[in-house]
Amino acid sequence: DELRSAIRLNPNAGRTHFHLAEVLAQLGNTQQALPEYETAARLSPEDAEVLSRYGAALVSTRPKEAVIELRSALEIQPNNPIIHQTLAMALRRTGDIPGATAEFKLAQQQTDQENNHTAAVRDTNTGIASLRKGDVQDAIKELRSAVASEPDFADANHYLGIALSADNQYKEANEAFEQALRSAPSNPEIHYNYGTALSDQGDWEGAAREYKIAINLRPSHPMAHGALADAMAHLGDPAASKSELVLAREYGTCQLAGGH
Prior knowledge:
The chain has helices at residues 2-9, 14-26, 30-43, 48-58, 63-76, 81-94, 97-132, 136-149, 154-166, 170-183, 188-200, 204-217, 222-234, 238-251. It is mainly α. It starts with a helix and ends in a 9-residue tail after the last helix.
């Protein structure tokens, strides 16, 4: 009743028609729900949820129309496994078995990707918590598990690089940082932390390179300016070191390696 009153006040509110359709469907009143879904879809043609739910409501009685609505929803959300699964059911009802099989396969693949990403985020967060507690070995274990779930996950590789560097496993740390940067090349913190790992290895040229990239991405990064000042001092360029130190102090406090 409230939704119908809202529609009388604003008949062009697509979402209100959609919510009314959802309530009617929950009550088992499919005949009244369908026209509300249709109106909602007409008023909100860019709303993937509206289009997909309308398509789902059409599957059992008008599967060909359902296919049209569900394909429109997928144009907006191509990686939504629920829409692919619903489209598979609609295609099966139209007799398009190969198309249905392909959509069921896509739905499963995307569900697996979502599950892997969820696991990667969980293990990354656990690994970060272990790092903060100083438990480097547990952090490495959790972060390796995160990378196994999603090899291209930038956060997992980033923190795995930090943890491995803290454990003096520099070769693997560098590989983790490089993988993180392949996925997120514009993240200044990854460049900064990679630079720190390289400086710990005595690779001052590599460290300076990463600090400079971090500064280009975030010019007001005081720690990167401070670290670059230290790197330039080690590379025998005191003028550049002094210039960076001025910028570090301008943007914020920092502690340079070696106590400079």
